[in-house]
Design goal:
The protein is mostly helical. The chain has one domain: Non-ribosomal Peptide Synthetase Peptidyl Carrier Protein, Chain A (Orthogonal Bundle), CATH 1.10.1200. It has four helices and no strands. Helix 2 packs antiparallel against helix 3 and helix 2 packs across helix 4.
């Protein structure tokens, strides 16, 4: 199942993202990270990973660190909002917002 989800993203990455959406590359990288941490989880891009029970306080910190390092961004205190990390889609949107603010 996880492979099918990643295949879907790989195919979609060849297309332009819909207006208001971040590149599928960002979502794919986050999805790969989550799949490496939670094998066979079947998490989709909109799933609330907190509500599904995948995230505890320690993993939340690891997730923030992964996003900062992988996408070469700094997540400010104002952006450390649970809603920015609930789903792959939310994290990708946060990356896009921070990059846009930095002119990248």
């Amino acid at each position: 199942m996880a492979t099918a989800i990643l295949d879907e993203y790989l195919g979609a990455a060849l297309q332009s993202p819909p207006e208001g959406r971040v590149s599928n590359d960002v979502e794919l990288e986050i999805m790969r990270y989550l799949e490496s941490e939670f094998e066979d989880s079947g998490i989709d891009r909109c799933a609330d990973i907190f509500a599904l029970g995948y995230v505890n306080s320690l993993f939340a910190l690891e997730l923030v660190t992964f996003v900062e390092r992988r996408f070469d961004i700094t997540i400010g205190t104002d952006d450390l909002d649970l809603d920015n990390f609930r789903s792959v889609e939310a994290m990708a949107r946060l990356v896009g917002t921070i990059r846009a603010a930095a002119g990248r």
